[in-house]
Amino acid sequence: MANYDVVVIGSGPAGYVAAIRAAQLGLKTVCIEKEKSKQGTIGLGGTCLNVGCIPSKALLDSTHKYHEAKHDFDIHGISAKDVSLDVPTMIARKDAIVKQLTTGIGGLFKANGVDVMEGAGKVLAGKKVEVTKPDGSVEVLEASNIVIAAGSLPVEIPPAPVDQDVIVDSTGALEFSETPKRLGVIGAGVIGLELGSVWGRLGSEVVLLEALDDFLPAMDKQIAKEAKKILSKQGLDIRLGARVTGTEVKGKEVTVTYSDAEGEKQQVFDKLIVCVGRKPQSQSLLAADSGVSLDERGFIFVNDYCETAVPGVYAIGDVVRGPMLAHKGSEEGVMVAERIVGQKAAMNYETIPGVIYTHPEVAAVGKTEEQLKADGVPYNVGMFPFAASGRAMAANETAGLVKMIAHAETDRILGCHIVGPSAADLVQQVVIAMEFGSSAEDIGLTVFGHPTLSEAVHEAALAVAGHAIHIPNKKKRK
């Protein structure tokens, strides 16, 4: 029976980072992965790298370049006639990027001395891990510490059973060989908006059916409203309060039945993407006597340091509470590895940024105005539109705004919400500021390069106190 200091179950962004950091700290480490890549090799990198974050961004970038060349070059004086995009070539490029990065993780494991084992891991009592290999053989590992990083799976709904042909999940939506003329998307959340954008740019008539009455309810309402306006103008047909009750596949098309405030309706699509969320991949992961507990939704119970009820057994990433974000899982992996060797590492869950990679991007960190209002926290708001940014004008990227929120008494930054060009990178500046406990004035006193998109963050911070330079300031009520 092999013995390890650390056994990591899952090689996604949480698991592979935890394994590498543990090995860097001198711990004998093995990482177990059960999934296979598209090429049939071990699927290092998990959902994010193989069928999630990375491939979707590759398609988003390809289709944005195509859409820009086809529709937006004229304003720059560039004539680009008969622009076309070959879908199989685009998909092949996406696959090449994924293969390069998954191979890279294998190289990092080798460089750091991390062992890799292919198979399905299961936590047993006494800090043992049972590994069922692809050939059906079973091996049991002994571990001083176990890190569970098994990730998540797409949620399935009975009214729309996935066949990966006409009705697909987010994985299937990355593999279309041609652009569907009529594309339905169940769910207008992050995944639905990104995938809808990919195929909408290539000419699909995209209808998003969202059961909730609010658009992006977790985001600041003002930013969500602006995002919906921009995305609708791009051609995405976003229908709120639309609950899907059934589907019927006939040949190569599907009829979707849904109900909204006006009653029952039907719509026919060539492809239907089901993306109504994800669930923790905790089934068959734990032996009954492992001592590790799940909640009613299948998440593993952990404390603030990702410790389970069993000493030496940790869980990180999508299988535990908190946002299902790759960067959140990665940082939890670092924290756990460092805590195993006795360091006092901790995570600040208040400063985890979230991003929707549409174009323009939507990004946020910290509290929304609605949350602060509900909690009775006094606050001030500063906003700056990209329409007033010289750099945004030069780039023909003037849609959207930056919204900064600071405590009314201490001026400490409580949140920042952005819809606009490079929002994902701009919000990271505020993440850093919040990590250091900065005030809006601190950002206002910082010199920003000109002309840059970053100046929109600077001006929003100045606007918190009514000091914005490049827009009229709203008069403060006495």
Automatic annotation (TrEMBL):
<dbReference type="InterPro" id="IPR023753">
    <property type="entry name" value="FAD/NAD-binding_dom"/>
</dbReference>
<feature type="binding site">
    <location>
        <begin position="187"/>
        <end position="194"/>
    </location>
    <ligand>
        <name>NAD(+)</name>
    </ligand>
</feature>
<feature type="binding site">
    <location>
        <position position="210"/>
    </location>
    <ligand>
        <name>NAD(+)</name>
    </ligand>
</feature>
<dbReference type="GO" id="GO:0006103">
    <property type="term" value="P:2-oxoglutarate metabolic process"/>
</dbReference>
<dbReference type="InterPro" id="IPR004099">
    <property type="entry name" value="Pyr_nucl-diS_OxRdtase_dimer"/>
</dbReference>
<feature type="disulfide bond" description="Redox-active">
    <location>
        <begin position="48"/>
        <end position="53"/>
    </location>
</feature>
<feature type="binding site">
    <location>
        <position position="121"/>
    </location>
    <ligand>
        <name>FAD</name>
    </ligand>
</feature>
<feature type="binding site">
    <location>
        <position position="57"/>
    </location>
    <ligand>
        <name>FAD</name>
    </ligand>
</feature>
<dbReference type="GO" id="GO:0005737">
    <property type="term" value="C:cytoplasm"/>
</dbReference>
<dbReference type="InterPro" id="IPR001100">
    <property type="entry name" value="Pyr_nuc-diS_OxRdtase"/>
</dbReference>
<comment type="similarity">
    <text>Belongs to the class-I pyridine nucleotide-disulfide oxidoreductase family.</text>
</comment>
<feature type="binding site">
    <location>
        <position position="318"/>
    </location>
    <ligand>
        <name>FAD</name>
    </ligand>
</feature>
<dbReference type="InterPro" id="IPR012999">
    <property type="entry name" value="Pyr_OxRdtase_I_AS"/>
</dbReference>
<dbReference type="Pfam" id="PF07992">
    <property type="entry name" value="Pyr_redox_2"/>
</dbReference>
<keyword id="KW-1015">Disulfide bond</keyword>
<dbReference type="InterPro" id="IPR016156">
    <property type="entry name" value="FAD/NAD-linked_Rdtase_dimer_sf"/>
</dbReference>
<dbReference type="GO" id="GO:0050660">
    <property type="term" value="F:flavin adenine dinucleotide binding"/>
</dbReference>
<dbReference type="InterPro" id="IPR006258">
    <property type="entry name" value="Lipoamide_DH"/>
</dbReference>
<feature type="binding site">
    <location>
        <position position="277"/>
    </location>
    <ligand>
        <name>NAD(+)</name>
    </ligand>
</feature>
<feature type="binding site">
    <location>
        <begin position="324"/>
        <end position="327"/>
    </location>
    <ligand>
        <name>FAD</name>
    </ligand>
</feature>
<dbReference type="Pfam" id="PF02852">
    <property type="entry name" value="Pyr_redox_dim"/>
</dbReference>
<feature type="domain" description="Pyridine nucleotide-disulphide oxidoreductase dimerisation">
    <location>
        <begin position="352"/>
        <end position="461"/>
    </location>
</feature>
<dbReference type="InterPro" id="IPR036188">
    <property type="entry name" value="FAD/NAD-bd_sf"/>
</dbReference>
<keyword id="KW-0547">Nucleotide-binding</keyword>
<feature type="active site" description="Proton acceptor">
    <location>
        <position position="450"/>
    </location>
</feature>
<dbReference type="InterPro" id="IPR050151">
    <property type="entry name" value="Class-I_Pyr_Nuc-Dis_Oxidored"/>
</dbReference>
<protein>
    <recommendedName>
        <fullName>Dihydrolipoyl dehydrogenase</fullName>
        <ecNumber>1.8.1.4</ecNumber>
    </recommendedName>
</protein>
<keyword id="KW-0963">Cytoplasm</keyword>
<keyword id="KW-0676">Redox-active center</keyword>
<keyword id="KW-0520">NAD</keyword>
<keyword id="KW-0274">FAD</keyword>
<dbReference type="GO" id="GO:0004148">
    <property type="term" value="F:dihydrolipoyl dehydrogenase (NADH) activity"/>
</dbReference>
<feature type="domain" description="FAD/NAD(P)-binding">
    <location>
        <begin position="4"/>
        <end position="333"/>
    </location>
</feature>
<keyword id="KW-0560">Oxidoreductase</keyword>
<keyword id="KW-0285">Flavoprotein</keyword>
